[in-house]
Every structure is written in structure tokens, then in C-alpha cells.
Specification:
The chain contains 14 helices and 16 strands. With about 425 residues, it is α/β, with parallel strands linked by helices. Helix 7 links the parallel strand 4 and strand 5. It starts with 14 loop residues before the first helix and ends in a 7-residue tail after the last strand.
């Protein structure tokens, strides 16, 4: 496919052939991007952001169609919130692309260098991963974020969005591709799978040699399928069963404000708090409950919490492992920091967990012992976002232990290679 082609090739007879064709074109584009100067890639992103702004009415009309279909199909309020675009959110999408364009490009940077006793000079240099397959649900902003981060880091991306956002994704992708063509960059660097056939997902997962890594972003079902079926490496973004622990030495006003913001600012984002843990020695637990109820949140609590307020419903065993993505929170009383750590260890999805306390030693122990991708002190878990980390945008929050962890942005989309420079050394 040449740079002028903005429409995908005709759908072949089977998904494997489609993905093979897209993968081959992506591989060519990735090789070109790896040699493209950073300034040229930045110019392409600026042009893509401008194209999205120029086509705002088209994108919002496409999103309105998706929203209407979502309501008809019974999407939850949280899912509709993730799907919804308005002028402000679309402007933020374009601004995020511009922000990525302004960031330093990690590809080509030297990590470290050493000269061995035999005179060999060895260095590690960051390089792009190659071709990245991204499978995601609901959020149309992922189309732009993934495209921008992939391009700037020198990777080609193959995007497969969820059916609930199909019109929004196509409109955003068309605008982005138009910007690349205007900047004389390969449109095949950012491709959107042109079918919602689930077989295309399976073909991506089996595309060894064409796709270098798969990044799933969605619910447990999607991530589980990707991890079970993938024949290429997977960088998983799992659900956010996030905790806010209110220590005995927390400031009551600060604790109530953080609890409401962490849960209710946007309930449908993966950084939303789902479980609040309160130290039995904390003096104002009812204030936390009342603040949440006043904000419109349903509270489910254990026995100790339920005795404090008639507004609390009894929590079930499953509540402690649930990502509600809704105005619902579970609250449990725990025996101090030790009890909080034990509960988090048993129920956290290793995404984001926070402590509210004025006791610095307790905070430092929490930061040290909680094994999550993001651990916070006296801050809302809603800050679990690549933009808030100064990364411009993110593809997702990686919750595993290998390669990248936390917000995955430019650096997370690179690996490294060793460069060895000698002067004729031979090994004895």
C-alpha cells in the first residue's frame, strides 16, 4: 500500500490473509520509521492532530452513532462513559498527540556504555519494538494515543478496536492517516483492522514474524483470551482493582476528599478506586461513608462498616475482587497497616494502590511493600494516567513484571540492542 492510500485493502477471503497483508505492509513501514528523523515524525504527529481538529464534526457524528448503538445494545453507564466523545474530550485527544510530538524520542538513545579490559567498547541503545498489535475495547482515544506513541517511538501499529466504537475508531484513524500522508510519512505505519470479525483477533495473535508484540487493553475476558491464545509476546493491561487505604494517622478532611475524588471523579477509568480500606483506629470512618454517599456513590461494606450507617449495603465475597467501573465502592475495616497490606496482597490486581496518612514511616512502608505498578501516598488513584505522569499519552497501564510496568508510553515501546566497537580483537 502506498502512502496515498487511506482506505484499507479489500477484505480477503479469510482473516489470516488480511492480517498477513497488513503485517507485511506494517513491517515495511516500521523499517522506514526506524530511520526517520525525530523531527519528521513530530511533524507528522502535529499534522495528525490538526487533521483530527479539522474533522471534529465528522468524528463526533461517528461517535454519536456509536453511542446510539451502545444504548440500544444495553451498554452500561461506565462503558458509555468510556465510549463518549465531546468537543472537550476530542480536543484533549488532539492535544495529547501534540504532547507526544514534543517529547524526547527514546529510540536511538544510549542507555549505558562500558569499555572492557580488552579494549572492546560495549553500549546499549534503545530501538523500536517493530510492529505492535493493539487490541482494545470501548475507548476511541486509544486509537489516537496508540498511533501517536507507536509512530514517535519508531514502531508501526496494527489497531483492532472494539465493535462498540467502530465508527469513532474509523473516523479518528482516517484523520490521523491523512495527517501522516500530508507529512509524507507512510500511512501503513498506522493501520486499523477493517473488520470486526473475531477471527481477525485470532489471526493477530498467531502472526509470528509479522507482529512483534501484542498489547491488549480491555476487560478480563479480552486479556484472558489474548494471553491464552497468543503465539507472540503479550504486554498485558489488566483490570484496576485499586485500593485506597486510610491510615489511623490520616487527616480526616484530606481522607474524605481523596476518597471521593479517587472513586467518583470518573468511575469508568481504570485508575478509579474500587475498594477503600479504613484502619480500625481511624477516628472518622463515618465521614468517609457520608462523603461518598453525598457524592452519589453506592457503598458496600463489611460487618464493621455496615454498623456505621444505614446507607451501607452488605458486601459479598466477590466485591473485594470486583472492578465496578461504576459509582459503587466496597469498604472494609482493617487492623492497621499490616491488615491493609494483607488485604491488598490478596485482592489487588497490581494496578494502582494508595495510602492516606500523615505518618511518613507508614507511608514509606506502604510504598515499599505494596507490589503494584503504581503505588501512591496522599494522592488520588485517578492520577494513574500517562498524561499525568508527563508521558503525553499511554497505551495502557501494564501490571506485569517484564519489559514495561505502569503507564506504557514511548520508552515502554522500545527495547535495546548491544553495540560492540572493537579494533581487531580476537577471543583467545
Amino acid at each position: 500500500m502506498n502512502a496515498e492510500a487511506l482506505t484499507p485493502p479489500p477484505m480477503p477471503g479469510d482473516a489470516a490473509a488480511l492480517i498477513a497483508d497488513m503485517g507485511a505492509q506494517a513491517r515495511i513501514a516500521a523499517k522506514r520509521l526506524a530511520q526517520t528523523p525525530t523531527a519528521d515524525k513530530a511533524a507528522g504527529l502535529v499534522a495528525a492532530a490538526a487533521a483530527i481538529r479539522a474533522r471534529a464534526s465528522e468524528i463526533l457524528a461517528a461517535n454519536a452513532d456509536d453511542m446510539a448503538a451502545g444504548r440500544t445494545n444495553g451498554l452500561s453507564g461506565a462503558m458509555l462513559d468510556r465510549l463518549r466523545l465531546d468537543e472537550g474530550r476530542l480536543a484533549a485527544i488532539a492535544d495529547a498527540i501534540d504532547a507526544v510530538a514534543a517529547l524526547p524520542n527514546p529510540a536511538g538513545t544510549e542507555i549505558d556504555r562500558v569499555t572492557r579490559p580488552n579494549g572492546l567498547m560495549m553500549s546499549r541503545v534503545r530501538v523500536p519494538l517493530g510492529v505492535i498489535g493493539i487490541i482494545y475495547e470501548s475507548r476511541p482515544n486509544v486509537t489516537a494515543d496508540a498511533a501517536a506513541l507507536g509512530l514517535m517511538s519508531g514502531n508501526a501499529v496494527i489497531l483492532r478496536g472494539g465493535s462498540e466504537a467502530v465508527n469513532s475508531n474509523r473516523a479518528i484513524h482516517a484523520a490521523f492517516a491523512a495527517g501522516l500522508v500530508e507529512a509524507r510519512l507512510p500511512a501503513d505505519a498506522v493501520q486499523l483492522v477493517p473488520t470486526q470479525d473475531r477471527a481477525a483477533v485470532g489471526a493477530m495473535l498467531r502472526a509470528q514474524g509479522l507482529i512483534d508484540i501484542i498489547i491488549p487493553r480491555g476487560g478480563k475476558g479480552l486479556v484472558a483470551r489474548v494471553q491464552d491464545e497468543a503465539r507472540v509476546p503479550v504486554l498485558a493491561h489488566l483490570d484496576g482493582v485499586n485500593h485506597l487505604y486510610i491510615d489511623a494517622d490520616a487527616d480526616p478532611a484530606k481522607a474524605a476528599e481523596l476518597a471521593v475524588n479517587a472513586k467518583m471523579r470518573r468511575t469508568g477509568v481504570c485508575g478509579a478506586t474500587e475498594t477503600i480500606l479504613i484502619d480500625r483506629a481511624y477516628p472518622a470512618p463515618l465521614g468517609i461513608i457520608d462523603a461518598l454517599v453525598a457524592a452519589g456513590c453506592e457503598v458496600r461494606g463489611d460487618g464493621a462498616i455496615a454498623t456505621l450507617s444505614p446507607h451501607v449495603e452488605a458486601a459479598s465475597t466477590g466485591d473485594w475482587d470486583t472492578e465496578y467501573l461504576d459509582a459503587i465502592v466496597s469498604i472494609a475495616m482493617v487492623d492497621g497497616l499490616k491488615g491493609a497490606l494483607a488485604h491488598i496482597d490478596a485482592h489487588s490486581s497490581r494496578h494502582t494502590d494508595a495510602i492516606v496518612t500523615e505518618d511518613i514511616s507508614a507511608a514509606e512502608r506502604f510504598l515499599s511493600e505494596v507490589d503494584s505498578a503504581i503505588v501512591m501516598h496522599n494522592a488520588s488513584t485517578q492520577f494513574a494516567d500517562g498524561g499525568e505522569f508527563g508521558l503525553g499519552a499511554e497505551i495502557g497501564i501494564a501490571t506485569g513484571r517484564l519489559h514495561a510496568r505502569g503507564p506504557v508510553a514511548l520508552e515502554g515501546l522500545t527495547t535495546y540492542k548491544w553495540l560492540v566497537r572493537g579494533s581487531g580483537q580476537t577471543r583467545p
